[in-house]
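hi! just following up on the protien thing from before. the input was this:
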Amino acid sequence: KIAAFLPKELTVVQTAPFYLEVIPAVINKGQGLLDTCSALGIDPRDAVAFGDAQNDVPMLKAAGVGVAMGNAPEFIRAIADAVTETSESDGAAAAIERYALNLETCRNHG
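and the predicted 3d structure came back as:
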């Protein structure tokens, strides 16, 4: 609702019930991933990203494989290619073991 009162050049993201970020729309984790991949000579389609909050959406979409943490809200899990265990249950480690060395499996079977 706050976004309606701000210029379109700004993005509003709630990352926790008590935390609201207002940032320039051109700055997001997805662009950060793309810039990092470019600097390292990595095709973004070969990248795996993990997320559990609204500010992770651009990154999950930019990566070849976007993995939502099990504790992520439903709308985050819905846009991800795969869902892993919760952050507290070492979900990122489980997903790395499951997918990181075999991206094609994740893309085809999520």
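The mean pLDDT is 89.
Residues 39 and 92 are 24 Å apart (CA to CA).
cheers
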